Amino acid sequence: MYNALKSLLFKLPPEEAHRLTVQGLAATLSTPGVSDLFRARYRYHDRSLKRRVFGLPFHNPVGLAAGFDKDGKYYKDMASLGFGFMELGTVTPLPQEGNPRPRLFRLPADRALINRMGFNNEGVDALASRLLRDGRPPKVILGGNIGKNKVTPNESATRDYVICFERLFPLVDYFVVNVSSPNTPNLRALQEREPLTALLTTLQELNEKLTRPAKTETNGKLGRPGELWQRKPILLKIAPDLTQGQLDDILEIVAASGIDGIIATNTTIAREPLATAAGEVAALGNGGLSGAPLRERSTEVIRYLSTQSGGELDIIGVGGIDDVASAQEKFAAGARLIQVYSGLVYAGPGLVRRIKKSLVQPG
């Protein structure tokens, strides 16, 4: 079914196809009878899929990566695909349009995407308002991926992350610090030891300041500012283009700051090896490459970090997961959880169910 739909969607610009896909999902789920059939088709659960990672209870280890639902508009509909967790954002303090269109491109021969979205989002207040209004889907962990505005200089970046952290603190289950997108000028410079240590230390101090004994949720609604909440796990999302020395620095910074884990990896600025002609790729311009070409490198990074930490580091694996084999590869390398995005575009919504089923019924 999805292959037929994909052939139509791939005739449209990628951003337009994305919008129509999520709107179509919402319409399907609002249709009595049809919604039940849809959920039955994609629902799959087994008790063995449950995980406790970063101290949080995940119903299953397959998540939706950041970037798909930046503004919290679709997460309740996307939950019907069976995700154990979903990451919203990247969100910034102020709304921003992002880079000029076109800014998202398909490479079908490579089962890949190139994007230079540029943290386009409606701002943290808009996301917080939706979360307060709509609550959360049952049995789904929500993460908040936070970044800085393009106009904010790096020396003031910590302020932007603090604003987002404080605003979302009562509303999400964990945070992801995004300093690894290639589409915001100079952002990746924040991955260097000194600025990254300062940023993470500040957020950890704020985390402890905001922490209070947890208050029970009611009616599936999220808490509101002023309610009492537990400390939130903080994760760092890193680029796949870091050197071994830089990865060693990351491990030292994680240990020194006491953050809870790593998401490996973000998109890459590399362009090799690709089946798509080099001239065609060059004509698309700058941006982060995701999808199947990232599979090997992201797995290498996961394996290195896991090995060097003695298997003690909690890692979410993302990058090139578009089938059962690529998912299992990430777990074997040391990932405790995984996320998908580009793989959904090429493999369709059944990917989540297939991965979960493979974890329960190997082979």
Automatic annotation (TrEMBL):
Subcellular location per the Swiss-Prot or TrEMBL entry: Cell membrane; Membrane
UniProt EC number: 1.3.5.2
One annotated GO biological process: 'de novo' UMP biosynthetic process
Membrane as UniProt keyword: yes
Keywords: Cell membrane, Flavoprotein, FMN, Membrane, Oxidoreductase, Pyrimidine biosynthesis
Sequence positions that bind substrate: 70, 115-119, 178, 183, 266-267
Keyword Cell membrane carried by entry: yes
GO cellular component: cytoplasm; plasma membrane
Source organism, top-level taxon: Bacteria
Chain residues that bind FMN: 66-70, 90, 145, 178, 237, 265, 291, 320, 341-342
Signal peptide start and end residues: none
TM region positions: none
InterPro entries: Aldolase_TIM (IPR013785), DHO_dehydrogenase (IPR050074), Dihydroorotate_DH_2 (IPR005719), Dihydroorotate_DH_cat (IPR005720), Dihydroorotate_DH_CS (IPR001295)
Catalytic function, reaction form: (S)-dihydroorotate + a quinone = orotate + a quinol
Residues at the active site: 181 (nucleophile)
Topology class, membrane: Peripheral membrane protein
Cofactor note: Binds 1 FMN per subunit.
Family: Belongs to the dihydroorotate dehydrogenase family. Type 2 subfamily.
Family annotation (PANTHER family): DIHYDROOROTATE DEHYDROGENASE (QUINONE), MITOCHONDRIAL, DIHYDROOROTATE DEHYDROGENASE (QUINONE), MITOCHONDRIAL-RELATED
Cited function: Catalyzes the conversion of dihydroorotate to orotate with quinone as electron acceptor.
Quaternary structure, from the entry: Monomer.
Name of the protein in question: Dihydroorotate dehydrogenase (quinone)
Gene: pyrD
